[in-house]
Design a protein that fits this description.
Largest sheet: 7 strands, antiparallel
Number of helices: 4
CATH architecture of the largest domain: 2-Layer Sandwich
Number of domains: 2
Order of helices and strands: HHEEEHEEEEHEEEEEE
Radius of gyration: 21 Å
Low-confidence stretches: 1-23, 179-186
Number of strands: 13
Mean pLDDT: 84
Oligomer: single chain
Length: 266
């Protein structure tokens, strides 16, 4: 009986403390560079100018490695906004644009109405989505899977350059339509940016303005003359302006505006 207790304690200590012995045990911090590279590859593969893309923020979610060991999954989405009926074409385009080593594929079921996309970016990084053929918003989920936690892992992305004029112009137009107590003239929004590497050697960057006091129930504003949004809902819209993708989404009583660049040289 005593020997059994000792053995159980030894196993428990080993699960908690032994160093990784196979690649899938590499901790979350060690997986971050591969995750960023995979997200950059998706952005590069999705640069077709008919569609709009948005590079999402890094997220860390708790998960269970074993019944007695917690872990963390780090992920980010690259979201595609497409015209009606173009979901399959967009996913096929991403499949063709990703590095061949990823083995990307799209499988259609239910008479072609259900689409499953999957790619293996290496280092146990998966890229996947499930969508209907009629969907116009496609979230390509890039994930490390459940990993051992790493002490002090830094989820902040490398900073990018100055906020582009496309974003500041959009924010000014949104604030001009605001109907809050500040009459839309407040400066409650905050700007931030993040960058990921692309297979071509360039960099994809997302610039974000949070907390914009615009009219979250209104029609698109700040869209350049002659440009038609690829996607729009009340208080939300997405359009393409050259290599820059602009997306506005409602965030509670305010809005968030993002500009995602295509892959470009430093």
């Amino acid at each position: 009986m005593a020997w059994g207790l000792v053995l159980t304690a030894a196993v428990f200590w080993s699960v908690r403390n032994d160093p990784p012995t196979v690649p899938e045990q590499r901790d979350a911090g060690q997986a971050l560079p591969a995750l960023r590279a995979a997200a950059g590859a998706v952005v590069e593969a999705a640069q077709e100018e008919r569609w709009v893309l948005r590079l999402g923020e890094l997220r860390a979610d708790e998960c269970s490695l074993t019944p007695v060991r917690d872990g963390v999954e780090i992920s980010r989405d690259v979201t595609l906004y497409v015209a009606e009926g173009e979901a399959r074409e967009a996913l096929d385009s991403v499949t063709a644009g990703l590095p061949p080593a990823y083995g990307a594929s799209v499988v259609a079921t239910r008479g072609g109405t259900r689409l499953s996309f999957y790619a293996d970016a290496g280092e146990f990084i998966a890229i996947e989505t499930m969508a209907n053929s009629a969907d116009r918003v496609l979230d390509l989920h890039v994930s490390t899977g459940c990993r051992p936690e790493s002490a002090g892992v830094d989820l902040s992305d490398p900073a990018a350059g100055p906020v582009p004029a496309e974003l500041t112009t959009m924010v000014a137009a949104m604030k001009a339509t605001g109907s809050g107590a500040d009459g839309g003239s407040g400066s409650g929004e905050s700007f931030r940016s993040a960058a990921v590497p692309c297979p071509s050697g360039g960099t994809a960057v997302v610039y974000v303005a949070d907390g914009v006091s615009g009219d979250a129930s209104g029609v698109p504003v700040g869209v350049p003359d002659g440009t038609t949004p690829v996607w729009s809902e009340p208080g939300e819209w997405a359009y393409r302006n050259g290599s820059e993708s602009v997306v506005v989404t409602a965030e509670n009583a305010r809005q968030r505006a993002t500009v995602t660049t295509g892959c470009r040289a430093g």
